[in-house]
Amino acid sequence: MSQREKKLNTEEQVETQGADLSVGTTMHLRFSSSPLLRMDKPGHRVEASSPREDAMAEAQAEACPAGDAAAATRPDLPPIKKQTFEEVMADLNKCPLFMTDMEENDDIAALQALNYEGTPLENGVDFKARGNECFKVRGYVDAREFYTKGIQILAAEERRRNGADGEGEGEGEGEDEDEDEVAAQRSTLEALYVNRAACHLELDNYRSCWTDCAAALRLNPSNVKACYRSARALLR
Length: 236
Prior knowledge:
mainly alpha
């Protein structure tokens, strides 16, 4: 091997040793348009945050404190947010616009009666006739609805009369009523209860059948149909 080749080999070994000594050291390179770079391991480059990013992070931490300080500055929730789903639905059900189930109420029944022309007796008889037509063709659900509408009208009249008689004060509401008119209303109401009980019996709603038969028997204890249908419901 010539002297020149030996010299080249020696220079290559020195360069290799110098490269090995530089491995594992931290090198910082700053470019004009890039953040600071750090070499922690050979071939592993990690970006370091710039001073501007550090300042933004500190400002954000000061503006949005964590823990109790954030909870103290949070605004109070409106009352509805503290209610359960059932409580919200109960409140909505009190509003006529969102009602799904209407309780028995004389005022509501009176408003419903305003939807129909004629006297309460005429409306009750009309709903009874329409319910009978549906019952004949086995339309028990529709028949029950018609009977229910007639019951709502005439039962409201009955409660109004009973309330006036029970209080003793009266407002002059029942003084001028014709006895024949009152008797006809009660007879129609009794028939509506018995007919709706028949619908409940066909639909296997036995408890509702007993309830309607009991209401009819309160109006007329001698009603044979009410006794018969309540007995059938008990035997089912």
